[in-house]
Amino acid sequence: MINNIKIFVALDYSDETSACRLINLLSPSDCGVKIGKELFTAAGPKIVEYAQKKGFEVFLDLKYHDIPNTVKKACQSAARLGVYMVNVHALGGSEMMIAAKEGLTQSKAKPLLIGVTLLTSHDQKNLHEMGVTKNLEDEIAHLATNVAKCGLDGVVCSANDIKFLKPSLPKNFHFVTPGIRPIDSSNDDQKRITTPEDALASGSTMLVIGRPITHSSNPYEALKAIRRTL
Ligand code: C5P
């Protein structure tokens, strides 16, 4: 049986035309799309509307991190765009995350609100620079627990982190996992990678996949092939 796990294809483009071209090669019955800082800064809300008009759910990956009131208002603006999911940095702290949640509670549309723990580009040295003395796993677990305490719906993390995170988090918590690589594809710049099937087995509830699909000569078939492994 084909598993119904959500896959968000990362539209990592600096222009609207390339993003629209990819959107038109995919089917909303196979995936949603992730719009991040690069594309949103270049193309603005109209690229969100374009994807939605084509039937795609949008994960607006802007990783808000600012004073609580600003993040609350930004989340409300995202909700007005009708996106499926939005995210904030857990490092922004409890007050900021609670304000974000409150902003969405007061909104008509209520996108899922996800906390980014530590970026996968952060290592122990970066933590030390930030003045954090905990080891990497303890800090990720600490931030994820705080995300749940603030009432958010899940975390963005590496699929490899789920085994130590899951026991202390709510049952219906979402684990949104990038760094996904089918067995025969290049790692690119990702360090901690997982195959789609291993990510699913680890407890991922949503997969974020970019280059294995967007750089393929046939993105539609590349996504279908990934789906067949799940
Ligand atoms: O091309 P690739 O599959 O590596 O794309 C992964 C996507 O997930 C990119 O848009 C990247 O910015 C995002 N991401 C990530 N690691 C995180 C958070 C987001 O790779 N920790």
Describe what this molecule looks like in 3D.
Keywords: Decarboxylase, Lyase, Pyrimidine biosynthesis. GO terms for molecular function: orotidine-5'-phosphate decarboxylase activity. Pathway: Pyrimidine metabolism; UMP biosynthesis via de novo pathway; UMP from orotate: step 2/2. Residues 6-226 form the Orotidine 5'-phosphate decarboxylase domain. The protein contains 11 helices and 8 strands. It has 230 residues and is of the alpha/beta class. The protein has a single domain (2-229), classed as Aldolase class I (TIM Barrel, Alpha-Beta Barrel), CATH 3.20.20.70. The radius of gyration is 17 Å and the shape is globular. The mean pLDDT is 94. The chain binds cytidine-5'-monophosphate.
User: Strand order of the main beta sheet, please?
Assistant: 1-2-3-4-5-6-7-8
Sheet with the most strands?
8 strands, parallel, barrel
CATH-assigned homologous superfamily: Aldolase class I
Radius of gyration: 17 Å
* Total number of domains: 1
- Beta-strand share of residues: 15-25%
Secondary structure category = alpha/beta
Bound molecules: cytidine-5'-monophosphate
CATH class membership: Alpha Beta
Estimate the mean pLDDT confidence: 94
CATH fold type:
TIM Barrel
| Distance between the first and last residues' Cα | 9 Å
Helical fraction equals 40-55%
Q: What low-confidence regions span 5 or more consecutive residues with pLDDT below 50?
A: none
Find the count of extended strands (DSSP E, 2+ residues). 8
Oligomer: single chain
Q: What overall form do the CA principal axes indicate?
A: globular
**SSE ordering:** EHEHHEHEHEHHEHEHEHH
CATH architecture heading: Alpha-Beta Barrel
Keywords: Decarboxylase, Lyase, Pyrimidine biosynthesis
Catalytic activity: orotidine 5'-phosphate + H(+) = UMP + CO2
Function: Catalyzes the decarboxylation of orotidine 5'-monophosphate (OMP) to uridine 5'-monophosphate (UMP).
Family: Belongs to the OMP decarboxylase family. Type 1 subfamily.
